[in-house]
């Protein structure tokens, strides 16, 4: 169910976030990308668990506002790194921390859906683990597709990597802005 939920085009905000999160990394950095996506999933899992057990309750409208903001902030950070020439400098720990924190927010966005599929389970551990493994696999599929398309444009069309990353990041900012306004 986690894979289905991630790959559902009705919930494209999550797909967009994963794409912009990985937009600045070349194919050779696939390990960094997987760790980054996993950091996001860890944050996501934590708030899903807290929400499913009733320990955390946050206004859904606030969460729906914060999700596009996370996409915009990630895109803006990408553009900043490109503009300042710090794109490939070693501040990866900050990226992992931000991905985890933004995962917390996105997990809250999934909490109502997760509660609905949870039903009357005696324990949330197994459904939570299964759902999040599905989410992680779905995200990895998204990253593989996004990085493959990026590689195609960078290698075959000969678009410089920083311009491609800037294009993807700015496009994500614009789309997230429309989500925020609409």
Q: How would you describe the shape?
A: globular
Total count of strands? 0
Which sequence of SSEs, written as H and E, runs from N to C? Answer: HHHHHHH
Mean pLDDT: 87
Number of domains: 1
Total DSSP helices:
7
Summarize the structure.
The chain is an all-alpha fold.
Could you describe the 3D structure shown?
With 182 residues, the chain is an all-alpha fold. It has one domain (2-181). It contains seven helices and no strands. The chain has helices at residues 2-7, 12-22, 30-52, 60-84, 92-118, 125-156, 161-181. The chain starts with a helix and ends with a helix.
Topology (SSEs and partners):
Layout: H1 2-7, H2 12-22, H3 30-52, H4 60-84, H5 92-118, H6 125-156, H7 161-181
Helix pairs in contact: 2-4, 2-6, 2-7, 3-5, 3-6, 4-5, 4-7
Brief descriptors of the model:
7 helices; 182 residues
């Amino acid at each position: 169910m986690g894979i289905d939920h991630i790959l559902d085009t009705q919930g494209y905000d999550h797909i967009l976030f994963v794409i912009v999160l990985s937009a600045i990394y070349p194919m050779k950095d696939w390990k960094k990308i997987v760790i980054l996506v996993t950091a996001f999933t860890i944050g996501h899992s934590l708030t899903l668990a807290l929400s499913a057990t009733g320990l955390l309750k946050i206004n859904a409208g606030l969460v729906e506002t914060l999700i596009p903001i996370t996409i915009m902030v990630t895109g803006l950070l990408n553009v900043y790194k490109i503009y300042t020439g710090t794109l490939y400098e070693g501040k990866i720990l900050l990226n992992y921390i931000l991905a985890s924190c933004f995962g917390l927010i996105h997990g809250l966005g999934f909490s109502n859906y997760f509660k609905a599929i949870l039903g009357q389970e005696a324990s949330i551990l197994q459904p939570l683990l299964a759902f999040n493994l599905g989410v992680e696999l779905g995200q990895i599929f998204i990253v593989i597709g996004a990085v493959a398309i990026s590689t195609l444009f960078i290698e075959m069309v000969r678009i410089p990597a920083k311009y491609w990353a800037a294009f993807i990041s700015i496009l994500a900012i614009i789309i997230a802005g429309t989500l925020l306004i609409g």
